[in-house]
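User: Please predict the structure of the protein below. I'd like the answer in structure-token form so I can feed it into my own downstream comparison script.

Assistant: Understood. Taking the following sequence of 180 residues as input:
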Amino acid sequence: MDSNNIYLRHLERKDAGALFDLKLRNRDFYQPFEPIRDESHFTLEGQEKEIANGIQGALNDQSYIYGIFLKETDEIVGRIALTGIARGPFQNANLGYYIDRKHNGRGYATTAVSLCVKIAFNEFDLHRVQAGVMPRNLPSIRVLEKAGFRNEGLAKKYLKINGTWEDHALFAITADDIIH
């Protein structure tokens, strides 16, 4: 895991074109692991709206959405987000991420997850970050395990993915699990 290869940056409106290209290039690859989305999602305007919603979410402390960028070229190779932030006694966020298919297997997802978790704990004072992943998505499970997440059980029929209610293994990490 080499954090010298990538960095995370809040997505900005100027990133919409690159995010659009990333989504289109990987649409068929991601589909088995994503909800069915309206066609408007797969447009430049759809990505502009997603980024605008992310900016608004950050202003409201509800979500933080980052691009995953290669340091060498500043190319966007993925996206990672902390969403559904709950404050009060919970101090929790949900984690979601994806990496461009052509960049899979290089450790970028594991590095991005580790970086995002550190941000969650050190900058946003969250106590817990959780992620749900379909049990058949072994590469994503391996990413979470390598980043220090523990498996907390199986949620039956948890999310509607690609038109089917899918079970998800729930993983979590707390601030107490890592050294700041």
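That's the full token string. The beta strands are 6-10, 64-70, 76-86, 92-99, 128-133, 150-161, 164-174.
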